[in-house]
Write a structure and sequence with these properties.
Order of helices and strands: EEHEEEEEEEE
CATH topology of the domain at 23-71 and 79-120: Immunoglobulin-like
Shape: elongated
Number of strands: 10
Strand order of the largest sheet: 3-8-7-6
Radius of gyration: 22 Å
CATH architecture of the domain at 23-71 and 79-120: Sandwich
CATH class of the domain at 23-71 and 79-120: Mainly Beta
Distance between the termini: 82 Å
Largest sheet: 4 strands, mixed
């Protein structure tokens, strides 16, 4: 088997490029909470809303999608290829109980933003500490 112009010592192993095509990318995310919601942000430039699938339970959010190549370029013509193309996914365990039915998602300037309201009982309440004599 030829690998980048050299004979491979392990002819039964697939080429690195073949392995990369079979792998699924992991979506990078930022997750934070406000007083009343859990917010997730993810950079997904080049992905259309119809190429995304988002599912939320009361405990976990799952995001799946595909970033498609706009043009086909022969791999031998690349000098660097750092952008991920193909299918990607991400699952994240939510830090607090949420109301999944009221979640909202938007896509602006290549950033996916998902806002999931917290369950009332899960909201954090700050209490004042009184000093006793």
């Amino acid at each position: 088997m030829m690998v980048r112009g050299k004979m491979s010592k392990h002819p039964i192993q697939p080429q690195k490029e073949d392995l990369l095509e079979e792998l699924e990318g992991q979506l990078a995310i930022d997750v934070y909470q406000t007083d009343d919601a859990v917010v997730l942000k993810a950079p997904i430039a080049g992905v259309k809303p119809e190429d995304l699938e988002i599912s939320i339970t009361d405990e976990v959010i799952n995001i799946k999608g595909t970033r498609k190549h706009i043009e086909e370029v022969d791999r031998t013509n690349y000098h660097a290829q750092e952008c991920y193309w193909g299918t990607f996914s991400r699952s994240f365990s939510l830090p607090v109980a949420v109301i999944s039915e009221k979640a909202e998602a938007s896509l602006k300037n290549g950033i996916l933003m998902i806002r999931i309201p917290k369950l009332e009982k899960a909201r954090t309440k700050m209490i004042e500490i009184k000093m006793e004599d």
